[in-house]
Design a protein that fits this description.
The chain is α+β, with helices and mostly antiparallel strands. It is built from 13 helices and 45 strands. The two termini are about 30 Å apart.
Length: about 775
């Protein structure tokens, strides 16, 4: 007996350190997203600007309740829009029901064009609040208006309605008591439809059309795609009374038959149609832009299938003639995230975003000739993001940009302005944080909301030079702080090349003990359109805050090839290497963090992600099987050869293949096909050494379940053990079963990184968790 006790004690002393710590499920449950989101109220001011005025109103909620304010920038004043108790008392008398004055639920609350009357709805009744008298009056029933015309697209002055029926385009007068329908097209059919729902099989049912009205209401255009030859894809709804197959069109990389775009312009008075011959590139992608208030032109970009060449043109809407303004090439592909065209003064000038010098910049063009006038953003080498406001009278453009300021995180969007001619470049929001601008139409003032993962969200009113006019709000963290929540920490490491700076965020348990060793888990997404880590203030970090509370260090960081927010070389780094490009940087980043912090245990490394992150986390586990110990991969596109054409061909490449053939009469023809093969996770299945959890929604029509099934098939053929869980009835994001998946992931990592195995059947907190 004594010897048995000694042996047991010896085994205990020899056990790895992580085996002595149980997962803290109670803390994870407390801080998971669905529980702590209610502890945080408003974080941004969303201004509602008065008509033709710099004044605005907004609502903001703190632990003291929801308040409504009106701000007059010229007077530097911020006042309550109404007294909440008085407002609730008036409503109680008018509706004969109690109202919570601390949290007034005012549906559809908006300001009329008279700048003094607010309208809102209670039980299908309109109510009006006079800003000057502070009196509420009861209006008419809105029940009929609520139920009508969910299929309708109204013209700008609500004179006309457009809609689709039997896949064709119709219009009718909005005030026509007889609802006289005017049919404009006759060539619509399923999968080549004027309706948004191209798959609709109902007859004589009105539905929303793809039509867009010109501002002067004289014309309407439709940009539709012909998917009739595109091959079918399907998922099965197993939860219907009788399981049902859902069929949809889905072009895959390398497919010969892909959607083809068409443009039609209809004259409302004559009812005539102009079919515009927009063909230029094979299998092109088309974007349409309005001229402004007039209807003489439409502007257009056309991009080729390989996504490296496009042109900017305008269309004469009277006859369909196309004038090409300029063409641009950008290898390996255009930046879809920030590509933007702004039409100025009815097309007299254009502002075009381009990466031609390796950084996203703004350029001014002549809108009639296509001649380049000048570069607008002459403030150095940085990435210009979204244009925020254009002042055509003052000839200034306001925009976000990243990476210009020294010692500021290059992912932070700071605000700048410049004159059209390239002069006058200056910063107007320089606080080291992520900024969001909402500017008055006059461009005199803007609301600046800014925050960071380690900075409380703040909202201020600034003038157009960046001077603070008023402090508006600071987010209320009272309940979070009281609960023991803490901010995550930012860090910077080097990429695997030892040169490139990578940025990330670290989440620790709130009862963190610096003398303890913690397994580390990397939350990943490969990009290239976005990276996994959050720049703005976040209380959840998606899954990361709760996951860390189990007893992990959870990190999320960028990697070369991950984001369009940095220079062109950085965000296109993974071209032609879609599976593997991000992996070495993730591994090297974890190694560096462990070199800095003794509390990180590199003997127990986990990795997880969703969609592209599911793809990446499995690829990491199979590529570095002696480094990563466990991966949770949800909805992963493990075989991008059966994922969508755009993602795969744009970011991994597609090659045009021409083959000479002779027909039966001996005439030589050229057959064009496309080569777009991509390396897959199933091909690495034999490398599995660690623990793998695969999950996938059974009705995922974005990343089809075939991706995970193919991976599972190869793992079985290789004789590997792994966990596979279909998420019944779920689409790509898992919907109502997201919480279930999150808890499943908790158990998975607790078992394989902490050695904490539980035998409870219920998914709720396991027994013995204190």
């Amino acid at each position: 007996m004594k010897r048995s006790l000694l042996v047991a004690l010896g085994l205990l002393l020899m056990a790895p350190a992580w085996a002595q710590h149980k997962a803290n499920f109670k803390a994870a449950e407390k801080f998971k997203a669905s529980n702590i989101q209610k502890m945080l109220k408003s974080t941004r001011v969303r201004p509602n600007w008065f008509k033709d005025s710099d004044k605005f109103w907004y609502s903001y909620t703190t632990t003291e309740g929801k308040k409504y304010y009106v701000v007059d920038p010229a007077k530097k004043s911020k006042q309550l829009l109404f007294d909440n108790k008085n407002f609730a008392a008036q409503l109680s008398e008018l509706t004969a029901k109690p109202w919570n004055f601390n949290d007034l639920d005012l549906k559809g609350f908006e300001l009329e064009d008279d700048n003094k009357t607010f309208t809102f709805m209670v039980d299908s009744i309109d109510y009006h609040f006079d800003l000057n008298s502070k009196i509420i009056t009861k209006g008419d029933s809105t029940e009929k208006a609520d139920k009508r015309n969910n299929w309708a697209t109204y013209s700008p002055d609500s004179t006309w309605i457009s809609f689709a029926k039997n896949h064709n385009l119709y219009i009718m007068k909005a005030d026509d008591a007889d609802s006289t329908e005017i049919q404009l097209s006759e060539d619509g059919e399923r999968w080549f439809s004027y309706a948004w729902d191209q798959d609709d099989t109902t007859s004589d049912k009105r539905s929303r059309a793809r039509a867009r009205w010109f501002e002067d209401e004289s014309k309407v255009y439709v940009n539709r795609s012909d998917s009739r030859k595109v091959k079918d894809f399907f998922v099965i709804d197993d939860l219907k009374d009788r399981p049902e197959v859902e069929i949809y069109k889905y072009a895959m990389p390398g497919d010969k038959d892909v959607p083809q775009e068409y443009l039609s312009i209809f004259d409302v008075e004559s009812k005539e149609e102009i079919k515009v011959d927009i063909d230029k590139y094979i299998d092109q992608t088309v974007n349409i832009y309005f001229q402004g208030d007039k209807s003489e032109r439409l502007y257009m970009t056309r991009m080729n299938r390989t996504s490296d060449t496009l042109d900017v043109s305008y269309i004469n809407t009277a006859n369909g003639a196309i004038t090409e303004l300029f063409e641009e090439a950008n290898y390996p592909y255009f930046n879809w995230s920030y590509q933007q065209l702004s039409i100025l003064n009815e097309g007299e000038e254009l502002i075009w975003w381009s990466e031609r010098n390796g950084w996203g910049q703004l350029y001014l063009y002549d809108g009639n000739t296509g001649a380049l006038k000048n570069k607008i953003t002459n403030g150095g080498y940085f990435v210009t993001g979204r244009v925020q406001q254009i002042d055509t009278v003052g000839r200034k453009v306001y925009f976000e940009a990243r990476g210009r300021e020294e010692n500021v995180d290059p992912y932070y969007a700071l605000m700048y302005k410049a004159n059209f001619d390239g002069s006058g470049f200056r910063s107007i929001s320089t606080e080291p944080a992520n900024h969001f601008m909402s500017m008055a139409e006059s461009a005199n003032y803007y609301v600046d909301n800014y925050s960071a993962v380690d900075m409380v969200p703040r909202s201020v009113l600034k003038d157009n030079n960046g001077n603070v006019v008023l402090d508006l709000e600071t987010a209320d963290l009272t309940l979070l702080n009281q609960a023991g929540w803490k901010m995550p920490e930012r860090f910077k490491v080097k990429a695997d090349d030892g040169i490139t700076d990578l940025y990330g965020v670290m989440y620790k348990p709130f009862d963190f003990d610096s003398t303890r060793k913690y397994p580390v888990i990397s939350y990943v997404y490969p990009g290239p359109q976005t990276e996994s880590f959050v720049n703005d203030f976040t209380i959840t970090g998606r899954y990361n805050t709760a996951l860390a509370q189990l007893g992990f260090i959870v990190v999320s960081m960028g990697h070369r090839g991950g984001s369009p927010m940095r220079d062109k070389y950085y965000h296109t780094y993974g071209y032609e290497n879609l599976r593997d490009y991000a992996l070495a940087d993730d591994k090297r980043s974890l190694e560096q963090l462990a070199e800095r912090h003794s509390f990180i245990d590199l003997d127990n490394v986990g990795i997880f992600g969703h969609s592209g992150g599911g793809f990446m986390s499995t690829a990491a586990l199979l590529t570095y099987p002696n480094f990563y110990d466990a991966a949770a991969s949800s909805a992963g596109n493990h075989d991008n050869n059966v994922y969508n054409k755009w993602w795969s061909e744009t970011h991994n490449g597609v090659k045009r293949v021409e083959k000479k053939k002779k027909d039966k009469d001996g005439n030589e023809t050229t057959e064009i096909t496309w080569d777009a093969k991509i390396k897959t996770n199933p091909s690495l299945a034999k490398n599995l050494k660690g623990h793998l959890l695969i999950t996938h929604g059974t009705r995922d029509n974005n990343v089809n379940p075939a991706n995970s099934i193919r991976l599972a098939n190869e793992l079985m053929k290789a004789g590997k053990r792994f966990d596979y869980m279909p998420i019944p009835g779920s689409r790509h994001g898992y919907g109502s079963k997201r919480d279930y998946y999150e808890q499943m992931m908790w158990y998975f990592f607790a078992e394989h990184l902490l050695g904490d195995y539980r035998n409870n059947v219920d998914m709720d907190l396991p027994d013995g968790n204190e």
